Amino acid sequence: MASTHNTPKKRVGVVSLGCSKNRVDTELMLGYLERAGYALTAEPKEAQVLIVNTCGFIEPAKKESIDSILEMARYKTEGRCEALVVTGCLSERYKDDLPKELPEVDIWLGVREYEKLVPALAKLAGESAEAESRLLNRSAVIRPANEGHCAYCAIPLIRGAYNSRSIEDVVSEAKALVAHGAVELEIIAQDTTRFGTDTAKKRLLPELLKRLSDTDAKWIRILYAYPDDMDDELLSAIEKLPKVVRYLDIPLQHADDAVLKAMNRRGTAAQYADLIDDLRRRDPSYILRTTYMVGFPGETEQAFENLCDFVQAHPFDRMGAFAFSPEEGTAAANMPNQVPEEEKRRRLDKLMSIQRGVSAKLAARRIGTVTDVLVEGYDGKANKYFGRSYGEAAEIDGLVFFAGAKGKAPGEFAKVRIDRVTEYDLYGEETK
After folding, report:
1. Residue 400 sits in a domain of what CATH number?
2. Burial annotation 171-186 (CB, 10 A radius, 16+ → b, else e)
3. What is the model's pLDDT at position 8?
4. Side-chain half-sphere exposure of 271, counting CA atoms within 13 A
5. Sign of CA dihedral 262, 90, 66, 138
6. Are 385 and 347 in the same domain?
7. Is the four-CA dihedral 91, 94, 100, 102 of positive or negative sign?
8. Burial class of 318 by CB neighbour count within 10 A (0 to 12, 13 to 18, 19+)
9. Which helix H or strand E contains 211, and what residues bound it?
10. Which of 127, 63, 128, 115 is CA-nearest to residue 87?
11. Is residue 42 helix, strand or coil?
């Protein structure tokens, strides 16, 4: 690897788009760059290297990615940018077409090529560099690519087959993150509950939770837990481990059996209902999040109404929703009975309107409770600290704003009594 001790560090600016999985990939890239002597900057006009880690999931995400690439390309003439790099899902999916359309980009890397970033930058600059591959030991076995993917989902086309890392590898990374100041660990994958089924031929998430609980992390949070794999072994592990927060992100996508079958989703609406009701009985303090899709091909008005009824009868504290987008290469793109765009928007608006009432009702249960809040910063204008309780995942949920004694630093915890809630945020005061 080229030495950087006698030369000024090059500055790198990064735009990370899309889901939390993309954010993890972005952090991996930054680790490679830091190891190679680069410095991070939040000012794109100051960066010699600009990276856009793209999302290619649905049409709006692709447009946002292209817009971000073009925006960053401006700094090749208006700033100090010497190299524009595009990585991630869009780059992987359209690697044969995009270089012709966007000559402004100097380096294109797919989702499994992040270790090539440092050598590619060195080559572009006419330098020599050794590929760094020692930051994370991501040893894994590729599972068959044709198993169990949804009819509408382009992610398997982009990221490939399910790919479990070893428990030792994950725990080693977790310990390193905690040693560098991480307080919370988020477990995330395309299907977190399938962890281990490709390598050990069994679900290893309960064992992983136990191992991570032995680290010095304060909180452990599970994201993208599929409903059909949430058995008693997993739930018991969650409930026996104090560090695993009572927060579950369970993507259901729909609640009409005919639509679920067409989507190639595992499970039925009745099974989903039983799971949600069981979670509420097991521990009323669970905060639950889900995602729904409206306008899937063949979704009738009755099917949509079934979804609306489910949202009210088996409520989630948090809900994301989006309209179906036909993605090339997916089975759903060519299905008959496509729903008109105007009707998709109407259904999306109605579903979100219903959820606003559901969220407000569930949030009101937390008024008067005392909760630990992980401090993230201080809002000088509002004269309040802000942070997250166990019930708010980073970057996708709301915040807790509270009045408290001066001097708190990000990463500290405060006990806060909640006295007011809005649709997304909570408000309170520090208490002892």
Report:
1. 2.40.50.140
2. bebbbebbeeebbbbb
3. 56
4. 14
5. positive
6. no
7. negative
8. buried
9. helix 205-213
10. 115
11. coil
Q: Indicate if 70 and 92 belong to the same structural domain.
A: yes
Find, among 422, 425, 432, the residue nearest to 376 by Cα.
Answer: 425
The Cα 51–Cα 38 span in angstroms is 13
In the chain, count H helices and then E strands: 14, 17
The pLDDT tens digits of the residues spanning 40-81 come to 888 888 899 999 998 876 777 788 888 999 999 999 999 999
What is the structure's pLDDT at 357? 94
Range of the domain at 157: 142-244
Task: Look at the chain and count its residues.
Answer: 432
| Spatial distance between the Cα atoms of 245 and 225, rounded to a whole number of angstroms | 14
Q: In this model, does residue 109 exceed pLDDT 70? A: yes
Q: Which two tokens stand for residue 378?
A: 């201080």
User: Helices 269-282 and 301-313 sit at what angle, rounded to 10 degrees?
Assistant: 10
Q: Which residue has the tokens 């097991």?
A: 282
d(CA 206, CA 240): 11
Residue 351, CA distances (Å) to 322, 342, 345 in order: 10, 14, 10
Q: What integer pLDDT is reported at residue 94 of this predicted model?
A: 86
**At residue 332, does pLDDT exceed 90?**
no
CA dist 397 and 359 (Å) reads: 12
Q: What is the pLDDT of residues 374-402, one digit of tens each?
A: 999 999 888 999 999 999 998 889 999 99
Residue at 28 is within a domain: yes
Query: Is the domain of 377 the same as that of 425?
Result: yes
pTM: 0.72
Tell me: do 116 and 36 sit in the same domain.
yes
Which of the listed residues 312, 338, 364 is the one where a domain comes to its end? 364
Torsion of the alpha carbons at 57, 59, 63 and 65, rounded to the nearest 10: 0
Local confidence band at 6 (pLDDT 50, 70, 90 cut-offs): very low
